[in-house]
Write a structure and sequence with these properties.
The chain is α+β, with helices and mostly antiparallel strands. It contains 25 helices and 32 strands. Strands 10, 11, 12, 13, 14, 15 and 16 form a 7-stranded mixed β-sheet that branches. The mean pLDDT is 91. The chain binds one RNA strand through helix 7, strand 11, helix 10, strand 15 and helix 11.
Length: 786
RNA sequence: GCCCAGGUGGCGGAAUUGGUAGACGCAAGGGACUUAAAAUUCCUCGGUCGCAAGGCCAUGCCGGUUCGAUUCCGGCCCUGGGCACCA
């Protein structure tokens, strides 16, 4: 019978569904929480998903065979813009659209043979789920971590909503639609992630199982600077200043003696005051007007060192020097105090500014004691600043969890009582794409009673950023159907933290930082058993074709369904795991897919054609071949196990190919081959995490009754992997000149001696003095000559 | 500009703590089988010189350490990613 994936794959998928693995319900085994980033239900699985889930499934299946009780769940990050846009486009509602997409993708996932625990499936857009997303928001509010403020915010004109700082990606673009982000002043809800800045930073140290680049990115994003806030006394012609002092922040108080001028951000409240009544007043006002028209982003990238003198001066508390105060747009109002002391000698930007505006550069030496002096005399205080900003979570969109707040004329912003959760999304809404958020159309939704005074209230019409939903889903998986609380603490304690998290690098900051924040808040509130959610993190690389990320617009998309139909899920999975190490970019190659298919065919023929005659007599001349085959098998068990442990799936598969080749060599060279079903069974076990269907099928063809999934992971016999011969490289002055074969127990003296006497080495050593002979056990001899 | 990651055959990629560079696969070329093709199978496959044995060169470039460097150190070049005047 030929290898026909289209026959055997559905068969085993049905079979596995009928007999679910003991998995997450098996309490007597050690736990292992294997998590892949849940997908947005766009309706179509793409190769990036396949890669993500194939990796997750290898780990799940491997860990199960190793005896772990594995939690391997899946769900849907189902709120968000695309569903709403589709609703507008098709004149429908996001809910049915999303449900349809989920159904489609579920079928695709099952076709891939990924072993999920479907009983734990979650959907963030379901009322049962978003009830708790809202509950967590109220918890934040209770703990003083949610607040409303008017601020300059990022506005995406296409998505018609505000964005968090983390969602504005390179070149000032919206993370989702790539539109250029605008600035708007709006009153919005924020989560006080800055309260956790220090812990989010220091706890990065605990994340020994995270890739270094992700940790560095998070560190930089949090951006901690330790320094001093120093008061400079102001000397100005304007006698009616509201404060006599100018506060600046510096990380380099030791350079205080080198200060030659000061700079304020144009938005600094002192800027206009200082120039009042001076000849510079007009110029200052003009400059402020000019910078108002520029966006923060343009200011940041312009690198311009333009500025104007305010007419005011400051007295340097370190040495009494009187230095001019300027304004310039390279100083940002949003960081520190919006004012800086300028030390051209020690700061590139200050130097560039000084040169452009003819300001002096001072040679005064550094002073390491000045900080202490100023702090002790009350002129300065120690200060730590962060780049991290609070998380703006309001979204002016329909398809998200409504922010559970009611506005009352008398009582202000009042939280919806817990018993009234969830605040449900209304269904009497039309999706036209016109006007404000669709939620404002629903009378039923808008109308609310103030929970405090019973008066007429108005509901908050913004919804929560969908990153709120995905910031705690891994906790929900531990207890996905609980209607009394977000999850049971004991169950969370059983499963958390996630032992292995797998997903794309694009979430290095966004989702991974928000999730860490949520976990810490829930930990502080006594809910989460851990203060870090993900013990180990694997960031998988992108799937590209012809050097570009697969996308419809580029026309280089390969449809997983097509590959599954043509070659089977096993081939798709195997190729994706074999073509590249998981953290690297993967170049799609149609011919490479065929290569993986060929390999599975070779395994198929090997296992389905193996005769089961008796073992040959030990005296048989080919007995040594059998020893070699066994040795190769055990070496492969060892190597594949070690490779999977370090996620080197590509080399693990290479080892399986080598083993298969060794089987064929053996078959070709021996007429009396003996019974190999045990050995081939081991090969199938090793292959099963990567290509589960074919392994299961052939396993049964070999006469096994139980599922291959229930088999323990093969163990190697240390005695069997030992080679009886070794090839020793012979070098002269580090250059390879010859190789010699020795029995494994050959003594160093014998090896060194023989190495010096081979025909080839003699050619190179003739007439030269041998200085020394170096022997590296089991590897090489290097003869050093002069 | 700063911070990461990475540069190995025609391609994807392998190489324990420094120890035979190129595992495994793809592509390519040649042979077998076949009426033919597909499938399968066998051989060759970094460059260069050589009839051959073999030599020389080769892991982005230039140096260094070492008996020995893809691996360690210093300096450059290039590619990808992140941050973007954070005082």
């Amino acid at each position: 019978m030929d290898y026909q994936p289209s026959q055997i794959e559905p068969k085993w998928q049905d079979e596995w569904e009928k007999q679910p693995t003991p998995d997450s319900t098996a309490t007597e085994r050690p736990k292992y929480y294997d998590l892949v980033m849940f997908p947005y239900p766009s309706g179509n699985l793409h190769m990036g998903h396949v890669r993500n889930y194939a990796i997750g499934d290898v780990i799940a299946r491997y860990k199960r065979m190793q005896g772990f009780s594995v939690l391997h769940p899946i769900g849907w990050d189902a709120f968000g813009m695309p569903a709403e846009n589709a609703a507008i486009k098709n004149n429908t509602h996001p809910k049915p659209w999303t449900e349809k997409c989920i159904e489609r993708m579920k079928i695709q996932l099952k076709r891939l043979g990924i072993s999920y625990d479907w009983d734990r499936e979650v959907n963030t857009s379901s009322e049962e789920y978003y009830k708790w997303t809202q509950w967590i928001f109220l918890l934040m509010l209770k703990r003083g971590l949610a607040y409303r403020k008017k601020a300059q915010v990022n506005w995406c004109p296409k998505c018609q909503t505000v964005l968090a700082n983390e969602q504005v990606v390179k070149d000032n673009q919206c993370w989702r639609c790539e539109s250029i982000v605008e600035e708007k002043e709006l009153e919005q809800w924020f989560l006080k992630i800055t309260d956790y800045a220090d812990r989010l930073l220091t706890d990065i140290e605990k994340l020994s199982g995270w890739p270094e680049p992700v940790k560095i990115m998070q560190r930089n994003w949090i951006g901690k600077s330790v320094g001093l806030e120093v008061d400079f006394t102001i000397y100005s012609p304007n006698s009616q200043l509201r404060t006599p002092n100018l506060k600046i922040f510096t990380t380099r108080p030791d350079t205080l003696f080198g200060v030659t001028y000061m700079v304020l951000a144009p938005e600094h409240p002192m800027a206009i005051e200082l120039s009042k009544g001076t000849p510079q007043e007009k110029e200052v006002l003009a400059y402020i007007e000019k910078t108002k028209k520029e966006s923060t982003h343009d200011r940041a990238i312009s690198n311009s060192k333009e500025g104007v003198f305010t007419g005011g001066y400051a007295i340097n508390p370190a040495n009494g020097d009187k230095v001019p105060i300027w304004i310039a747009d390279y100083v940002l109002m949003g960081y520190g105090t919006g004012a800086v002391m300028a030390v051209p000698k020690h700061d590139e930007r200050d130097l560039a500014f000084a040169q452009q505006n003819d300001l002096p550069v001072s040679d005064n030496p550094l002073d390491n004691n000045i900080a202490d002096k100023l702090v002790n005399s009350g002129i300065a205080k120690r200060k730590t600043n962060f780049k991290l900003r609070d998380w703006l979570v309001s979204r002016q969109r329909y398809w998200g969890a409504p922010i559970p707040i009611i506005y009352c004329e008398k009582c202000g912003a009042v939280p919806v009582p817990e018993n009234d959760l969830p605040v449900k999304l209304p269904m009497d809404v039309k999706f036209t794409g016109e006007g404000a958020s669709p939620l404002t159309q629903s009378k039923e939704f808008m109308h609310a009673v103030c929970p405090l005074c019973g008066g007429v209230g108005r509901r908050e019409t913004d919804t929560l950023d969908t990153f709120n939903c995905s910031s705690w889903y891994y906790l929900r998986y531990s207890d996905p159907h609980n209607n009394e609380k977000p999850f049971d603490q004991a169950l969370a304690k059983k499963w958390m933290p996630v032992d292995q998290y797998i997903g794309g690098i694009e979430h290095a900051i966004l989702h991974l930082l928000y999730s860490r924040f949520f976990t810490k808040v829930l930990f502080d509130a006594g809910w989460s058993p851990t203060d870090e959610p993900f013990k180990n993190l694997l960031t998988q690389g992108m799937v590209v074709k012809d050097g570009a990320k697969m996308s419809k617009s580029k026309g280089n998309v390969v449809d997983p369904d097509y590959i599954i139909e043509k070659f089977g899920a096993d081939t798709a999975r195997l190729f994706i795991l074999f073509a590249s190490p998981p953290e690297k970019e993967l170049e799609w190659n149609d011919q490479g897919v065929e290569g993986s298919y060929r390999f599975l065919n070779r395994v198929w023929r090997l296992a389905s054609q193996v005769p089961s005659s008796n073992f040959p007599d030990p005296s048989n001349e080919k007995y040594s071949d059998q020893i070699k085959l066994k040795r190769k098998l055990h070496q492969t068990i060892k190597a594949v196990t070690e490779d999977i442990e370090k996620f080197s799936f590509n080399t693990a598969i290479a080892r399986l190919m080598e083993l298969t080749n060794t089987f064929y060599d053996y078959l070709n060279n021996n007429s009396n081959i003996g019974n190999l079903s045990l050995e081939i069974g081991h090969l199938l076990q090793l292959l099963s995490p990567f290509a589960p269907h074919i392994s299961e099928e052939l396993w049964h063809q070999l006469g096994n009754k139980d599922s291959i999934l229930s088999q323990p992971w093969p163990k190697y016999d240390p005695k069997l992997i030992v080679e009886d011969e070794m090839t020793i490289a012979i070098q002269v002055n580090g250059k390879l000149r010859d190789t010699l074969l020795f029995s494994s127990d050959a003594k160093e003296e014998e090896i060194k001696e023989k190495a010096q006497k081979t025909d080839k080495t003699l050619i190179f050593t003739a007439g030269k003095e041998i200085v020394k002979v170096i022997y590296i056990p089991k590897k090489l001899v290097n003869i050093v000559i002069k």
